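During data preparation, a discrete fold description was generated, as reproduced here:
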Amino acid sequence: MDKGRIIVVGSSNMDMVVKTNHIPVPGETVLGGEFFMNPGGKGANQAVAVARLNADVAFVSKIGDDIFGKQSMQLFEEEGIDIQGMVSDENGPSGVALITVDKDGENSIVVAPGANGKLMPEEVIPTLNKIDNISILLMQLEIPMNTVREVAEYGRSNNITVVVNPAPMHGDLAEMLPLIDIITPNAKEAEMLAGIPVVDVESAKEAALLIYESGVKKVVVTIGRHGALIVDNGEVIHVPATEVETVDTTAAGDSFNGALVVGLSEGKTLLEAVQFACAAAAITVTRLGAQSAMPYRNELIDNLLDI
């Protein structure tokens, strides 16, 4: 079967990570432990996740003409990602993310978008027009919303599946929901989209149904250690997570989204693709970092997690 190409349109950052006992509250200073830098950004993370699962992927993003941007480009090439759609901003910095990870693997993240905030539709659409056999467009919300909208409209016009990971949530997303084939919020994002508190699996189901009724064709809500919820044709399905010892949840959602679109591109049903994505995310949270934590296809097979 011809799987088609996956195009990820999104952000590229340099992640600066500090491990500490607990995440500080406002006004508190805590003594941290290990510090390291890793390439990150939700778009870049998801592109790497796709590439490591042996799918054909191109990444469209905007980086600064600086050391962080140059390092990221080199790493994308090493991962086997098509970077013909990368744009360099000569007048601004690359995006950076400041990440604190506590002893339980939970994280707090602040992102300075840099060049990501200037990725315009006219820099994306011409690249899409050059690429043959696109099957899936995967986006997040760390780039301008007008770009997300125009790419989604491009996907709709060209019969391409549009998958949007609504992170970080943006108020303008609601009016775009009919353009989206699959939306993949986490519990907090689902709460914001649905307008109801999400505190457990049952309330997550209610939120997922409300989002579905807003016009999205399919909804996949990730709920951490509880796995994921699918709403497809009005039916709700709960997919349990694989139990693992969590080290760092930083890139779990990105790993999930990358694996999800790989599964779909291979002809898996949505249920099968979500099971595959849960397996990939389970491996990711056992490691520190973002792109460095993404699993390779053989690791899923070796751990009997391949679906």
Notes: The domain at 5-302 is CATH 3.40.1190.20 (UDP-N-acetylmuramoyl-L-alanine:D-glutamate ligase). The first strand starts at residue 5 and ends at 9. The mean pLDDT is 93. The chain has nine helices and 14 strands.
